[in-house]
Structures are given as structure tokens and as C-alpha cells.
Amino acid sequence: MPLSGVQKSKHPCSVCAKRKVKCDRLIPCTNCVKRGLEKDCLEKPAGGQSDAIDDFLPRILRFWQKYEYWVGDIALSKSANFDTTEKQIDLQEELKECEYWCNFLSREQSFALLDYSIERLGVLYFGCVSDISELYLILEMYWYRREHKNEKDVVLTVDAHYSDALVWSIFCLAVHYMPSKTLHTIFPILPQHELFKPLDHGYDFEDRFQRNLSRCFERCTTTLLLMTNFTANSDIRLIQIYLILSSTMYPHRRNNSSDSLLLQSFHTAKIKHVNDFKPLISDSAALRLTKVTCEKMWYRLCTCDYLQSSPNKPITFHTELSSLLQHAAYLEDLPTTDVYQSEDSFEVFYWKVLSLDRDLDQYLTKELKPPLKTLDAVQRQVEIFSRKLSSPEESTSLDSEFARFLISYLVDGVSWKLHKMFFIYYGISASLGKSIHFAKSLIALVIKNMKLQKELFNRHPIVIWSLARVALFYRFLEMFDSSAEVQDINLDVSDILHYLPKGFTPHLNELIYLLERLQMLKDMWEYTGDAELRKTFSHPVFRILQSDIDTVSQQYTERPSMISGSGPLRTQKVSSNLEKDTGNISDSYSSLIERFQEQCQFDIQVLASLENFV
Prior knowledge:
The protein is mostly helical. Among the domains are: 14-48, CD2-Gal4; 91-272, no CATH class. It contains 26 helices and 2 strands. Strands 1-2 form a two-stranded antiparallel ribbon.
């Protein structure tokens, strides 16, 4: 009996997929009919897919979770290399470099940077500085010390160095977020410095100028901080300086230094009882205000600790804040509780949303399948936060457009990750479409900032942190699902990456390199069309991806040798459940893997060398 109605395929036809155009999935499709390619459209399997791949896809996607953690998170954002054989650091040279930048910055320029940070960047640091008006006084005292440094009554104390480092961290923040053209008007004359000598007035001159100046200011700030001898002289300003720097690319550019500073900030927070902010009836007015500031600082410190978590930083303290899901279960038994009530501060709201990301990300490294009730609880909380954001009454925690953007962006990022996990672990087909919807929402927020001339919002590290996960996942997924919606989101992501601020360099360059590498692996997947080989992880593509994981993970299993000259020792790698699928493959496939790894290398040093990669 003939089929009635229009027949449609689950996947685009191979002709449209090869041409990278949208396919209406009719049999034959409209594009092929117009081009006279009906025969090719009907003979070739749609999308190049097979039932074997469809059955194997759940295992492939779970494998991706591990790859996303080790490569998309650790290697891309939280790895740093250093060579102990390099020339010894000259502390006098560091001090000389710091003094150069202190002399380069004029009084007028410094106040212009402070004005910009207070007018537009307050949400990034007002929570950890109780009295903003004091910053102008601190800057005045900074210039008094510099202008009278040769007088006998001016002595540079530890307190003075802390104050100097604090204002310079704010300068660093302003340089990172300020539009490059505006920054160049404040600094019209190029510094007589080796980093600025190669600069020419090309199309990206202002971006490169800003990137180099940001790094130099960052280096000056950390040098001033070292002059406080903060390991021996604990001060609350150490935490403030670190929190301000954490809103720039400092944690990504100087990963080891940032981790060390974070742990020292945690030590200082415990000494100064920053985490003890519970209000008491007996508290004075001054103490209550202090506790409010301490609460904001503690939540922000835990936020930084979570975002920097890695095998290279096994000491964590963000776990002192329990999962929000536990509180959600408790609130279900209290029907009179208004779960939509606004949070007291931006810092608390931000952490609550980020804690949901933590609840999801824990399954990247676990072999366990996340329980449905956990994913449902996360979804319920996300819906509550979304309702708060859309409430006509603006909450006290969202007192600026920047704050609202950061919360909205983070909520969409958690929603994307949630539906990605529904799709990966439970095969809910509708969840793929929902994940793409939230991926497009992330992109739309970035584009909206561009249209409204608020590009400074896009310079926050959370932007590239979320987009990197999204971009890598869909580029990987396109190997096995060449549907129009997957192709479309990949095109959208590729477009938006080219419009992100250059201040994300080299992090952005590393991401583009990994995306191009995945595209080459997709080509390899299509080239090696052995149906039986595609059913196992012996396929060259998976061998290469597993090799990438091993390359990164082995770096974190090294132990220093106590025997001179023997080099680092590595703990034996634990066998993966996937390895039972691997076996001997033909010599042609082995040579294919070798050629690919030679042409498109992958290790931490290669990623770190992409400073000027285009």
C-alpha cells in the first residue's frame, strides 16, 4: 500500500550536507530537485548516518563529557607551563619594570581610569570595597607619595604598598574593559617599551595596544603586591586586589600565579573572619556594615575558587557552601516561603546560579549517570531565577545593566548545559533543540551588547568561558549529526567568535585552533567510512581524541623524582572503560593518525604558543 503524504528524512541529504546548505529533508529534497540531482539525493544515505552510528551515539556523547573536561576546560582555561631551566628571574628587573609604568602613568590619566571604573564597572568590585569615596583619597595619597618620594617624611610602608597595589588593580580593570579607541585617547603617546615597538598603525592597532597595556599594568600590580610581602603581612586588601584582578583575564594568562594568590586570599579570609558574617543582635552598626561587605567578598571568593578548580589546584574551599539543591528540597516543604524573593546582593545571586553549574559539571569526570531528579531540580531552580530576571520590579541585586547581563548570561549558560545533559544521558531528542535555543540566547546577548554599544560587557571572562564549551560541543556533534540545526548553530558560533574582544587573546586563539582541529577530525571521520570500525572506539578519530585526553591528564599525574637526573615520574594511567573497544587497526589507519598528529599537534605547550595565531 503506497505511503500517503509527504515523506521526510530524519537527516539532511548528503548533497546538501556537502554543500553546507539548509535541507528541507524531503525525499528527494527541494534543493536537489532544482539542481537536477534527484538520483544522488535518493541513492546516498541522508546525512551519511547509519543505524550503527545512531546506536553508538549515546556512548560517543558520554565520551565527549570527559573530553570537554580535560581539553575544553582544563587544557583551554586552566593549564600553565613553566620551564625550570629558564633564566633566573631578576627581581631588580621586575622592580625596574614596575617603576617604568609608575612613571609612565600621569596623574590625569590615573584619575581618568578611576572615573571610568567607578562609573561603569562598579558591579565588579563595589561589593568588596565598602566606601567607594575612599578610592579617590587613596589615589591622592598615592600621588603625594610619588611626588614627594625624596623627602624624609615620606616612608613607603607595607600599608602604602597595599594601597598602591589596590589602585593599580583598578587601573588594570579599567584598561581591560575600556573601549580600545577611548583608551588610546587617554594614552595618545606609545610607551617607549619593547612590547610596543613592533606596533604599527594597522587595522587592529588599538586592540593590540590595549592587550599589551593590560598585561603591563597587570604585571605592575602583582609586583607592587609582592612588595607588601603579603605572605607575612596579611591584609584584607589582598583579597580585594585579587577579586578585582579576577574580573580580567589574569586567571587565564597567569594561571599558577592566580591559583597561589587565591589560596593566600583564602588564608587571609580565614584569619580576618571574612566567612563569619552571620548577623547578631549585639552587633554595632559599623560591624553590621562590615559583615555585609564580608559576605559579598566571601561569595565572590568562592566563585573564583570554583571557576579556577582543576587537578592542578586540589585545595578548594567553595565546597564549604552547600549545594543550592539541598535548600530547594527544603523549601518545597515550606509552601509559605516565597522562592521568588530577591537576593540581598548581586554576589549572592551570582553564586547561587553558578552553584547550579557546579552541580552539573561534577558529572564531567564521573562515570555515574546524573539522576533525573537532580536534573529536574536544577531545571526548577533555573526557572525560578529566570522568573526573577524577568520580574518588572528590579531587585536590589541587579542595580546595573552589567549585573543583569552577567546573571542572564550565566542562567542561559546553565540552561544550555542542563539540556545538553538531558540529551547526552537520557537521549531526549527535544533537549538537543532546547540546548541550541539557549546557545543562541547566549549569542544573542553578546550581539545585543554590540548593537547597544555595550561591548565592555562582552569582555567579562564568563563570556568566553561559556562560549568555548558551546562551540566545541556542537563542532564535535556535527561529525555524527549533520542536521540543519546543528550546522546553523556552528555557523552562528563561528561568526560570533570573530567579533569577540581581542582582549581574550591568546585564549580565543586556542579555542579557534581546537575548533579547526575538530573540523579536520570530522573530515577524517567522513574519509574513513568503515561501518564496522565506526561501531567502536578503535576508530582513528576516537584514538586521537583519547590521546588528547591522555596528554592533558598525564600532566596532572606527574610526581617529582627524588633521584637526581631521573626526570618526572608518572603514575600509571587508569584504564578507561572505553579502552576495551580499542584494538589493532590497519597500518593505513595508524599512519593516518600519525600524519594527523604531526600536522595538527596537541599539547599544553602548543596551545600556549598561540599568542599570535590567526
